[in-house]
């Protein structure tokens, strides 16, 4: 009971929360926080008919709005790469070429996961190779200083791109590792503070790095069961936004889960405290925080912690906390609409990062191993449509109201559709409400094209010691196979620009 007594109120008190002032992040001196969390939300309310009408209108609207070709120029390689040195272009072309060769990626992944890595000499050679190729291409640096330098060069000299800083740990299994990761995330905010204010757009956190994975699974099970049976009591549950829709998959939780033990409840509070500490630090540093989306087995708990913290921290125009929606999920659009409507109803601005999703193969494997239909759209076209419809819904919403959207994508068509819509609605230059983002080392033409069209563009920049970042690189390599081999447009444009520079130098 003593553990349960560490209630939300105490939790907030222990973080010495004050009141927010209505200043948007990244505009001026930091605002101060609020302890007001007693907003009550009717979680049983399911405005399905309103939702169905909105979804139908959204589909029609997005399909009609496809005249999108003219706002981003991806053909003028000289203009696109004007801020990139020839050495960088050469290295990028070589690294992308290497990463696009499937046999090399297969071999690399086999080696990294093999027992050979236990031999010190072999391991050192492999790590040195990775460091000077993939790591340097896709990561910002091993420590704070190297990362700061990379962010500065991304932002200065006409490049004008911003950084989403992410300490690239994958997940933690106990409180000790979570505490270590918390320190690393807090240090990440310190890195942001030491850089020019406009150069860092977001701090990114993986919740499974600050709350043990097993616990996130347990909490997700309990939340899922409560959605099925509203009489199922979760005494530890805080106010949140809707996490499920009627079509959300429930196959992860086939039988009524046991309540959390006192120890689990305590660990959940510790996880939430860690998240609130990061929120507070981000608020003080005037830089927003985005929580990454992960597997569906843990996403309900991630959304729950994200939304309950957003209710405490997002006030007026100040969006401290952004969640992430994965458009490859069949229930993505409904969940986005429900969460954003509930946020409007209780008067908090909510920010969303919209991605397609990076755990496709493992999601499909899990669903099929349990004998259920995959939670992922049956075709890539459906994923594209879902992505564009979610983007369209949010762009309409933020054009006239609260909220913010980060379109995290390498998909040129999605970029063009969103830009055309934003242009029609008059959202654009220096808007903090609509931003674009690509992974560091990927889709440079799209990033520069969007920047040239007047939008805020960020690069998602993982950093940390090579050994810590390797699981992140392996996951990206595995999940982004198609993407890396589809980077041929990038390489083509880079080669074109290299040839032009060579010619100019010779003549
Ligand atoms: C800034 C940033 C942040 C990100 N954060 C997250 C995050 O928090 N969580 C997360 O899960 N991912 C995240 N990602 C990765 C993202 O989800 C994608 O894996 C990646 O960006 C590729 O999608 P795309 O929008 O760039 O689209 P595209 O370049 O069009 O790539 C589409 C890819 O989607 C896949 N795909 C999706 N649905 C289907 C389907 N139904 N059938 C077949 N293939 C399908 C295919 O592999 C294909 O290669 C992030 C990406 C970026 C750029």
From TrEMBL:
Its EC number is 1.5.5.2. It is an enzyme of class 1 (oxidoreductase). GO terms for biological process: L-proline catabolic process to L-glutamate. InterPro entries: FAD-linked_oxidoreductase-like, Proline_DH_dom, Proline_oxidase. Its cofactor is FAD. Residues 159-485 form the Proline dehydrogenase domain. One of its GO terms (cellular component) is mitochondrion. Belongs to the proline oxidase family. SUPFAM superfamilies: FAD-linked oxidoreductase. It catalyses: L-proline + a quinone = (S)-1-pyrroline-5-carboxylate + a quinol + H(+). PANTHER family: PROLINE DEHYDROGENASE 1, MITOCHONDRIAL (PTHR13914:SF0), PROLINE OXIDASE (PTHR13914). One of its GO terms (molecular function) is FAD binding. Coiled coil: none annotated. This is Proline dehydrogenase. The keyword Oxidoreductase applies. Keywords: FAD, Flavoprotein, Oxidoreductase, Proline metabolism. Pfam families: Pro_dh. Converts proline to delta-1-pyrroline-5-carboxylate.
